[in-house]
Amino acid sequence: MTSHVTTHVLDTVRGGPAPGIRVTLSGADGGTIASGVTDDDGRVAQLGPERLEPGVYRVSFATGEYFGRQDVRTFYPSVTIDFVVEEGEDHYHVPCLLSPFAYSTYRGS
């Protein structure tokens, strides 16, 4: 089974992957669909089911915990990214580029 949603978190200050970040996939109603933890390469390869219905979904990253383990102060205790799943799309890769005081995202492949 291939997950409909995957993610990859890169720590732009360290210039490498961000392992050990708790990630949650939620529906528009706020209910948790799936969760995981980034691996040594900063990835969660199986975040959710093989297929999601069209609609709005949310991926949340527990960034405060990640930086706290490094004893690094951060402005963002969590990062939340909302995105739209459309009919007929096979895969959504939702990456996060992260630092203690900024983040960015894009639609990955």
From TrEMBL:
It catalyses: 5-hydroxyisourate + H2O = 5-hydroxy-2-oxo-4-ureido-2,5-dihydro-1H-imidazole-5-carboxylate + H(+). CDD domains: TLP_HIUase. The keyword 4Fe-4S does not apply. InterPro entries: Hydroxyisourate_hydrolase, Thyroxine_BS, Transthyretin/HIU_hydrolase, Transthyretin/HIU_hydrolase_d, Transthyretin/HIU_hydrolase_sf. Transmembrane segments: none annotated. SMART domains: TR_THY. It is an enzyme of class 3 (hydrolase). GO terms for molecular function: hydroxyisourate hydrolase activity. Keywords: Hydrolase, Purine metabolism. Residues 1-108 form the Transthyretin/hydroxyisourate hydrolase domain. Its EC number is 3.5.2.17. Homotetramer. Belongs to the transthyretin family. 5-hydroxyisourate hydrolase subfamily. Catalyzes the hydrolysis of 5-hydroxyisourate (HIU) to 2-oxo-4-hydroxy-4-carboxy-5-ureidoimidazoline (OHCU). This is 5-hydroxyisourate hydrolase.
